[in-house]
Amino acid sequence: MAYIEERRTQKGISRVVRFRLGGQEVKIFLDSAYTRRDAEDAKSAVEGFLRAKKLDEPLDRKTRLYFESAPPDLLKRFVALGFSPARGASRVVDVWQTFQAAKSSTVKPSTQTHMFVVFARFRAYFPEAIRFDELTPEAIQEFRDELTKRYARTTVANTIAGLRTFGAWSVERGYAAKNPFLAVARGSTSNKARDFQVPADWAERIFAACPSQNWRTLFALWRFAGLRQQEPMYLTRDSVKLDAGRLIVFAPKTERYKNNGVREVPIAPILRRELVAHLKTMPQDEDFLIYENRRKAFDSGFRKIIFAAGLKKWPKTFQNLRSSCENDWIADNIPAHVVAEWLGHSLKTQETYYLRVLPEFFDRVTQKEPRFF
Length: 373
Known about the structure:
By secondary structure, this protein is mainly alpha-helical. The chain has 15 helices and 6 strands. Helix 8 packs antiparallel against helix 9 (213-224), helix 9 packs antiparallel against helix 10 and helix 12 (317-331) runs antiparallel to helix 13.
């Protein structure tokens, strides 16, 4: 049985939910920000939990739903008391559905797709009914070993990273006593073997193979402004500031972070040439800069252009265009933090995924004239 006490303070009415657990009196304090209804809901959940524990039965639906949506600060206090609804007894698949529903309104569609793929790999290996408390370090290691047999190193690392995020959320919400996916090494999510510096002198061959100015502008934005594959789709006429030599870029990927995903990128001479030509050919009633082929993926079309240019397709087609631009800027002695700002990512991301040791760095030293003192 649980009870509610009310106390009047200078800030209003605070409440205490009192009950006995393991022979000890326990108090859950709710300050004046919580209403009487909040206290009654917490009291009802406490009683439902104590009843299920006494009878050794699963939680009833009302109690389970309360813990699934309880305010995080209250839930943390329940968890600290050993009072969470699951503590490992929940089926992983059920918790995943709650996790995905909770994240559906806060993450991008591409992230949701990645989450779906990550858990599909988990479900393909583990039984449907497996619970958190059955995910032993040995079981997780065997799962990781199986992934290693079937997927590339970075795919394995990204899968474990996604499951770790899910595990941390499950612990915070009280579904698991600990994050089982921390028991194995994540591995590196960077694969330097697939890095490729797209030479700047290939540009004119690719430009010549482009079937339209629209494609020429796209390639220039990817290679000489370092834009992500889909970022050109958000550019408008007003995004191009030729007089200032700047491009105003919006990145949905970083919208939740600094500057709401908006950044400024310098307009290099070769990009200026293409933008000037592009603006001259744009219909007056068009606002979006890229007004043709506004598709979600450009892979097949750009592969045909690379082939027409007499070049062999390189790995990570669009990311390597972006990283080639970044390495050019670094080689031009632009400070790393400035380059990271232009590209719209952190210095850590820059170091892990983008920068590489280029052959010309060796040439600068080996071909340098000696100095005599």
